[in-house]
## 1
Amino acid sequence: MDTPRSAGEPEAAQDGLFGLEDVLGEPEASRPAGPLFRDSEEARRMLSVRRIHAEPAAAASPRGRQIVARYPEAELVPTDSHWRIPELHGNQGNAERWVRIKSTVLVLGEKKTLTVRPNGRSADWIAPGAANGCAMACAYCYVPRRKGYANPITVFTNIDALIHRLRRHVTAQGPKKEPNQCDPSSWVYDIGENNDCAVDALISENTADLVRAFTRWPTAKASFATKFVNPDLLLLDPRGRTRLRFSLMPADDSRLLDIRTSPVQQRIDAAADFVEAGYEVHFNFSPVVIRPGWEQAWAQLLQNMDDVLPRSVKDQAAAEVIMLTHNRDLHDVNMAWHPSAEDAIWRPELQQAKRSENGSWNVRYRNAVKAEAVETVRRLVHTYTPWLPIRYAF
Ligand code: SF4
């Protein structure tokens, strides 16, 4: 369990077994020579920062200063709290400006609550995120719900405190005694619950620091799902301690729903490079969208994976399958800017609604529809990619 540090804890558990000194903030000079992807035109199309809203302490921190220096042209706007920036986080009036805000605005804040939460699906634990928000704009994304729908990336600059927290948690767990579907021998920590770590790596060293930290913790493994191919991550040295989960869906669905992401084929084609660089590469089949012809589209996707992925990827891969969940408020927002997406993902005749803890209505496929669809995906995977174990499906 995630126990807070207490006076009675043994010293090794309080201070961890592995040093932090050479984990944080790799000097830029130690990077390999040559142009970085993050300075490319393609990266600038994803993120071209013109304004940075920053909590004063975050802007003054070492990580904050690095980020501000990276965008010398950007206007720096002080803010009391990364949670309260009405012009960014409100819904009304922002739908049309949504993508422009995501691609031009950054927020810097300090993460106050460093909680490690149990999970049991994608990972054993959900780590406190080093960022929230995203520069991409998937039509089904649940990430914006807490900060309103414009929701640009907030980078948390107190990465040292976050890694200290993780180190204490990893140390307190000790070795994993029983294999489970998350991993046979390592505790898996999801480091990207509300963000995409591959995009975040365009902005700061937070992702690199986390990847590096997990190389020091032999009982633990980092994990994050991504829809963005960032070749700069290949320059890190994860030594098998970071699991990257490429999110995949049929290309036609992706073109409609995965706004601003890397093309699906690019994600598949990148898998071998990431394995070679020392990542574990899994696949996140998510969300599975039921629409006319969806079974054939998934069969084609899986057949393509079987055709193009080399043995090096197949031998270590696993997948998770997650059926679409949607949300009434998000549906209303999408109708203002991307109604054709809603034709695919708002299917009341197949879906049921359930009120969430925050009072909004979440929508998911009816139980029988979902159960049948999950079985269909399992059958397709068994048929077309028999080398691909499914870790979980729901
Ligand atoms: S990439 Fe992930 S976090 Fe970003 S918009 Fe898409 S679903 Fe949301």
## 2
Amino acid sequence: MSVASSPEPSVAADPRFSPPGYFDALATRVLDGSPITRAEALSILQASDLDVPAILAAGYRIRHHYFGNSVQLYFLMNAKSGLCPEDCHYCSQSKISEAPVPKYNILKRDELLDAARVASERGAKTYCLVISARGPNEREMNAVETIVPEIKQKYGLDICACLGLLTDEQAKRLKACGVDRVNHNLNSSESHYEKICTTHTYADRVQTLRNVRDAGMEMCSGGIIGMGESKADIVSMAFDLAELGVQSIPVNILNAIDGTPLEGTDAMSPQDALKALAMFRFVNPSRELRIAGGRELHLRMLQPMGLYVANSVFVGDYLTTKGQAPQADYDMINDLGFEVTGSCEEFSLDSPSVSR
Ligand code: SF4
């Protein structure tokens, strides 16, 4: 048969694909300043795995618009481990967890300073000071108020404090001692919250974020996906974060630790985790989006793809679980052709380098 008479290859459209250009059109709308709807956000989560490349490509346009190819690194310091009276079902440090985690009270000044040195050496811009607690007691507040000015003066790191629930007065004290940002995750949707914690409420968490915002600090708040919630729950959380105006959104993928009530929870697939990360980018286009705990465990070989929509990762270990070696993160960022940035402020909305 001659080449000229060859029939045109005809491939029937696979119905599992979304209509061509669907996600790209959503990204264009977002970049034009029109938020996507909850139904559209849900459609990202409900898309088939075949759509993942198109979702990421569209999400990357948004990510690139606001953050270029920059990657912001965060360094976590578990300044007080275990001994928490709360019952968050995902947490290995709660009173009801039987997981064998280290238990210690807030670390001494030298240990906190030494960790800041390591954070600085690893290229992190932000030092996340975390304690396991319902909220900080007076001793813990005093320790934070003492160490924060020292770390900032010595290493020039931004400080994000994660101390649990905060009163408005505590938030003001943290602002006064130099804390730049407070992390307090919503963790899940309002309707799913009572299934993952009974010792405090979703409303308590929202109030702490409002106290942080009113004190003049930035809000870092995200959640954990893969805790048995529905796709609509994940959408709901993403919209609540947008409405609160949080500046930084860490998205954890549940690492179901043995000994916690969520032990044995089905793992989220890498494709579903990527769709969720992308959905957070579409709903919160200009906000820092961090792939947090569970990155290595659930994204596995697809970790680099997550950075097409997220613009930040933790470097080093998580609170009670291991992360990959810092060099592996630097190599990943390098291989993507992305670069570690010194500061997210360089990529603020007002920056001419990231014009709308
Ligand atoms: S308040 Fe924090 S440390 Fe305590 S159980 Fe909940 S997540 Fe864990």
